[in-house]
């Protein structure tokens, strides 16, 4: 824990980070009262109902009970009761799933639908905000969107976050141990602006306070702690400011839109949703070793993305800064639009989201400035609610790095989580990675490619502390499959584990 003792600048930053959480917890009941949930109708794609004929739902009401309509102001006879959607319950309390990406509750300008989440809709188009992941990525519509929702004047707001206190023990000769804190706090707001929707988002992380070298993680590579040496068998800390971004979307019809996203930092249209925003991976306290094959661009200093939504399809392109963040984790680096990417996403059904993407990254590695990278990714995420407050979510993903000049390296990942009653979580992550950065200073091994396998399994038990806060305890164990040639460096059967406590605002 000595990594938390730093300069006064860091102490002030950590204090502000903690203060933002405390203020949010104090304000969350008031915010919840300010934002009653709009009534959900089953006529998806139909014109919006006149809600002046109905009473607003009382605080805490699910919004699906026939009691909402009083006898004095009964709806016309042709009005149907809200439909019961197969595959998931109509209400999940504070954690709800959208019944359709085209639901029409309160009509906005341009025919945009508003979501049941405190009056918020999708930032990028006329669909439920449950479809949106990190940056401009999509996830399945059935993904539960946890957060504290509110209303401030014309703005609809939401914030959420979590903090993990982790003890990490990585086995074998190149392992190590460390106690650290990681996590994130994110806030967002949106309002109507002309015939479109304007949004702002901010996300911060406590990761810089763990120290520049991050935490031990066998077979993780990428970035640097000091600007001179590679981080190997360690996961780098993320930036204090993970996202500071704005969005604007203009609805072309009831199910299509054009949008613009700009961030400093932000996330370009490349890869699946970042691992801390994927429902199947957000409860795992360690980063995937495929991080730099799939979603390492989720913190990029300078991003501009434009896109088109056509119902279940989204096509988008980005210009962004290709260089990964440097070892100075508390600052905001100068933007530069020297790289580009494009992504096509398709959500054929509510439970499934698929994407393919490609990009050219100019000089991504600080220690190898003359090497560019072409990256291609493909992924699919399936999220299925079942029973009462139970969810199963799985992501499969592939990423390929083509170094210019240099090697072609593949990474594969399977990630899955089962959540029961918002209390018990079981998770699994399996990975296969082609690594060429494990041995920079070992004669005969420099630059050689070694294929490694990793499987992590674990779970969490959560208890509620507040209407919007829960505390959990959990653990995971990781095992590896490695080539015989490198076993003298890592051990024949290295085993790693983590135990952790988590505070989560939802």
Structural class: mainly beta
Q: List the uncertain runs.
A: 1-116
- If you compute it from the alpha carbons, what radius of gyration comes out, rounded to the nearest whole angstrom? 23 Å
* CATH H-tier superfamily: Porin
Largest sheet: 16 strands, antiparallel, barrel
How many E-type strands? Answer: 19
Estimate what percentage of residues fall within beta strands. 35-45%
Mean pLDDT over the residues: 83
Number of helical segments with 4 or more residues: 3
**Architecture per CATH nomenclature, i.e. the level-2 architecture:** Beta Barrel
State the name of the first-level CATH class: Mainly Beta
Q: Largest sheet, order of strands side by side?
A: 2-3-4-7-8-9-10-11-12-13-14-15-16-17-18-19
Topology as H/E string? Answer: HEEEEEEEEHEEEEEEEEEEHE
Net shape: globular
CATH topology, by name, is Porin
Name its key features:
Porin, 16-stranded antiparallel barrel, two-stranded antiparallel sheet, 3 helices, 7% helix
Molecular structure report:
The protein is mainly beta. Helix content is 7%, strand content 42%. It has helices at residues 8-34, 291-294, 487-490, and strands spanning 148-152, 155-170, 176-193, 196-204, 215-224, 230-235, 241-253, 256-263, 303-310, 313-320, 339-346, 352-361, 372-386, 390-404, 408-420, 424-435, 450-466, 469-481, 495-505. The strands form two sheets. It has a 16-stranded antiparallel beta barrel. It has a two-stranded antiparallel ribbon with strand order 5-6. A hairpin with a 2-residue loop joins strand 17 (450-466) and strand 18 (469-481). The chain is globular.
């Amino acid at each position: 824990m000595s990594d938390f003792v730093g300069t006064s600048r860091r102490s002030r930053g950590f204090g502000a980070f903690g203060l933002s959480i405390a203020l949010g917890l104090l304000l969350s009941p008031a915010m919840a009262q300010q934002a009653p949930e709009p009534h959900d109708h089953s006529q998806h794609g139909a014109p919006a109902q006149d809600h002046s004929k109905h009473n607003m739902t009382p605080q805490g009401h699910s919004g699906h009970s026939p009691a909402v309509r009083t006898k004095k102001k009964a709806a016309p006879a042709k009005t149907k009761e809200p439909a019961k959607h197969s595959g998931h319950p109509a209400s999940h309390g504070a954690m709800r799933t959208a019944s359709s990406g085209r639901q029409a509750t309160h009509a906005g300008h341009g025919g945009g639908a508003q979501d049941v989440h405190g009056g918020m809709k999708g930032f990028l188009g006329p669909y439920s905000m449950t479809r949106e992941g990190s940056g401009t990525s999509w996830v399945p519509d059935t993904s539960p969107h946890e957060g504290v929702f509110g209303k401030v004047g014309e703005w609809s707001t939401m914030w959420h976050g979590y903090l993990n206190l982790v003890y990490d023990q990585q086995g074998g000769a190149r392992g190590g141990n460390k106690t650290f804190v990681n996590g994130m706090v994110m806030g967002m707001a949106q309002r109507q602006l002309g015939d479109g929707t304007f949004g702002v988002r901010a996300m911060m992380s406590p990761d810089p306070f763990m120290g520049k070298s991050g935490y031990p993680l066998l077979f993780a590579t990428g970035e640097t702690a000091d600007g001179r040496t590679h981080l190997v068998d360690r996961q780098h800390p993320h930036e204090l400011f993970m996202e500071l971004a704005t969005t604007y979307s203009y609805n072309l019809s009831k199910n299509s839109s054009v949008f613009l996203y700009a961030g400093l930092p932000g996330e370009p249209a490349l890869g699946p949703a970042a691992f801390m925003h994927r429902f199947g991976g957000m409860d795992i306290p360690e980063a995937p070793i495929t991080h730099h094959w799939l979603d390492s661009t989720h913190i990029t200093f300078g991003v501009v993305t434009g896109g088109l939504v056509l119902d279940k399809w989204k096509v988008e392109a980005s210009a962004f800064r290709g260089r990964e963040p440097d070892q100075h984790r508390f600052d905001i680096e100068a933007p530069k639009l020297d790289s580009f990417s494009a992504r096509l996403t398709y959500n054929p059904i509510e439970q499934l989201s698929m994407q393919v993407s490609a990009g050219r990254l100019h000089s991504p590695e600080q220690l190898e400035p003359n090497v560019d990278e072409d990256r291609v990714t493909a992924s699919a995420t399936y999220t299925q609610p079942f029973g009462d407050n139970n969810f199963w979510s799985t992501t499969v993903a592939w990423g390929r790095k083509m170094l210019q000049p240099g090697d072609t390296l593949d990474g594969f990942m399977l990630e899955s989580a089962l959540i029961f009653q918002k209390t018990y979580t079981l998770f699994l992550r399996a990975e296969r990675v082609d690594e060429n950065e494990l041995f920079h200073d070992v004669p005969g091994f420099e630059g050689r490619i070694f294929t490694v396998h990793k499987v992590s399994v674990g779970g969490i038990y959560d208890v509620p502390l507040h209407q919007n806060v829960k505390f959990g305890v959990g653990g995971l164990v990781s095992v590896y499959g490695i080539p015989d040639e490198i076993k003298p460096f890592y051990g024949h059967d290295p085993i790693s584990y983590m135990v952790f406590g988590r505070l989560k605002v939802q």
